[in-house]
Design brief:
The radius of gyration is 22 Å and the shape is elongated. Helix 1 crosses helix 6. It is built from 8 helices and 4 strands. The protein has about 180 residues and is α+β, with helices and mostly antiparallel strands.
Length: about 180
């Protein structure tokens, strides 16, 4: 997801306030929980983001949904709705997660393989990545049969492509370039 400048500001402000109040984990969980509802329920998202629906109606629903949440998160959502910034919520969730990960020395990595790996192999790769980056690694595994074999690891903006598919492509390019230089 491409970072949105306003979402970064809102997420940073929310995180810092939660940090001051020593409620970071609570607020982080609330942001993610509400974010899941926002993403999974199209009807709710459309209601909340519709410019045709009055702000007071949106605030009433937010109040009902968040009556048991922390005052900080509740007030944050009220502010978003009043300012008409609720459409940024998905971006705010993403940015909040990024900030939380940074402050807790965590990174997210993606492991793509042609077949599902046994759990112990995934844990071994996760451990290797943790040592490599000096951080706790949250590993997401994806199966993509198009890789043919091997694996692709994406972490911290880096890509390690050790897939059979990429090796075949490289060999094909090499053969093509050799053929073209011989002509």
């Amino acid at each position: 997801m491409k970072p949105h400048p306003l979402a970064k500001r809102y997420a940073k402000a929310l995180y810092e306030l939660a940090d001051e109040q020593q409620t970071v984990k609570t607020v982080y969980d609330e942001v993610n929980s509400f974010g899941s509802l926002f993403e999974q329920n199209n009807q709710f998202r459309n209601f909340l983001c519709s410019p045709e629906i009055e702000t007071r109606k949106k605030l009433k629903i937010v109040e009902q949904l968040l009556k048991d949440s922390s005052p900080l998160f509740y007030n944050f959502m009220v502010l978003l709705v009043k300012k008409g910034r609720q459409t940024l919520f998905s971006h705010i969730v993403f940015e909040m997660g990024r900030i939380f990960d940074q402050r807790n020395n965590r990174i997210r990595a993606q492991l793509t393989t042609a077949i599902a790996l046994p759990a112990e192999k995934s844990k071994e790769i996760q451990s290797m990545l943790s040592k490599r980056f000096g951080s706790q690694v949250l590993l997401e595994t994806i199966v993509d049969p198009d890789l043919l074999g091997g694996m692709v690891i994406r972490a911290e903006g880096r890509v390690l492509d050790a897939s059979l598919r990429s090796q075949i492509r490289a060999l094909t390019r090499s053969m093509y370039q050799s053929k073209m230089s011989a002509v």
